[in-house]
Amino acid sequence: MRNILLISLLFLTAFNTIAQEQGEKPIHMTGVILDAENLDPLPFVSVLMDSGKRGTVADNQGYFSFLAFPGDTITFRSVGYQSRDFIIPDILDGNSYSMIELMVRENLILDEVLVSPLPEMEAFAETILKQKLTNQQRSQISNFKNELNQILEQEYQRDKPYYEQWRYAQIYDMTGIVPPNNFLNPITWTNFIRDWKTNSNRRD
Question: How distant is the alpha carbon of residue 100 from its chain centre?
Fold first, then answer.
């Protein structure tokens, strides 16, 4: 708060010094800046004086207020609009002046750009294949493939039980037959016992 008061005091002191040097009374300028096409307020337009040495910025409704002298040239600038100059009249009744500034959009003419595709897919593939990869790029591609394979394998192992359940549900929906449960399959148990005996004999 103290800094704001100090800056305001310095500004007023400097302005009073300029006024005394010029021997003229300052004028309180107020106004609003609008779009000349649709008359909408233009927010945050730069309002400059003395070739940019002094100035202010309009608020979000296009309103501005500042002190100036008769004969000063005010320049209005905003991105996408043509700059406008206004000279404060030398003869004014009173010490205030209000105005409405209409700003015209600036139309930019760009050079023509021609965009054309490659004639055929083979030509596109040939263009890509002609690109030479550096050793660093080859290493990055190889690392990316390895990381991608690891991620896919981890996701497969994580989702494998759900995939099996989904597959059984699909078979039941299409055929109406409940998929066989290998836990109750006698052939599976026979193979298990046979393999177990074979391994036991090998150990002995």
Answer: 34
Q: Got the DSSP string for 32-96?
A: EEEETTT--B-TT-EEEEGGGTEEEE--TTSEEEEEE-TT-EEEEE-TTB--EEEEPPS--SSSE
Residues across the chain: 204
Domain ranges of the chain: 2-103, 121-197
pLDDT score of 3:
45
pTM of the predicted protein model: 0.45
What pLDDT is recorded for position 2?
A: 46
CA distance 124 to 122: 5
Q: 27-35 and 96-103: which strand pairing? A: parallel
CATH class for domain 2-103?
mainly beta
Nearest residue to 45 (alpha-carbon basis) of 4, 83, 7: 83
Half-sphere exposure of 169 (CA within 13 A, CB side): 6
45-69 pLDDT, tens digit each: 999 987 667 889 999 999 999 898 8
Percent of all residues in the chain with a pLDDT value above 90, rounded to a whole number: 24
